[in-house]
Write a structure and sequence with these properties.
By secondary structure, this protein is mainly α. It is about 85% helix and about 0% strand. It is flat. It starts with a helix and ends with a helix.
């Protein structure tokens, strides 16, 4: 009966509520520093992203300011500019340019050769199988040739008789 009367009394009910509130406040106090650290990290990364975007914006603004100069430079042909080269080096430059042009002309074939390097083992195995098939066909061809020659000799004997 004492236990039943204790639970009904408002004094003990208030105490249980107060204890519950204290427990909730303790939980909030435990979670609050974690929330603060998470929001601090979020603000830090947002700040970094904002700095990067501001740098990009400054760069783009500078490019837009120089847009007219950039267009002129892009439209202007590079071959019309003179190269300040001493006369003693003119022969070497001409030789170098001819070699550079030759290299550029052959560049695609060189690149194709480099791209085919990983396929060499597969190509070699294909060549081996093709070679063995060719040898087999040569053997069969020799056998057929011998049979044809024998048949020809038999035909000559038949017509001669």
């Amino acid at each position: 009966t004492l236990d039943l009367t204790c639970r009904r009394t408002p004094c003990f009910a208030k105490l249980a509520e107060m204890e519950e509130m204290v427990n909730m406040e303790a939980e909030i106090n435990e979670v609050q520093p974690l929330l603060l650290s998470v929001t601090t990290l979020q603000f830090y990364f947002i700040g970094k992203k904002c700095e990067i975007l501001q740098d990009m914006n400054r760069h783009l603004e500078a490019i837009l300011k120089e847009k007219r100069d950039l267009r002129k430079r892009l439209i202007k042909h590079r071959c019309q500019e003179s190269l300040p080269i001493e006369a003693t080096y003119h022969k070497s430059i001409v030789e170098f340019l001819t070699e550079a042009v030759t290299f550029i002309e052959k560049l695609e074939s060189h690149l194709q050769s480099v791209r085919s390097i990983p396929q060499i083992p597969h190509m070699m195995s294909n060549m081996d199988t093709t070679l063995s098939k060719t040898e087999m066909l040569m053997i069969e061809l020799e056998e057929l040739t011998d049979q044809i020659l024998k048949w020809k000799e038999l035909q000559k004997e038949v017509y001669s008789n």
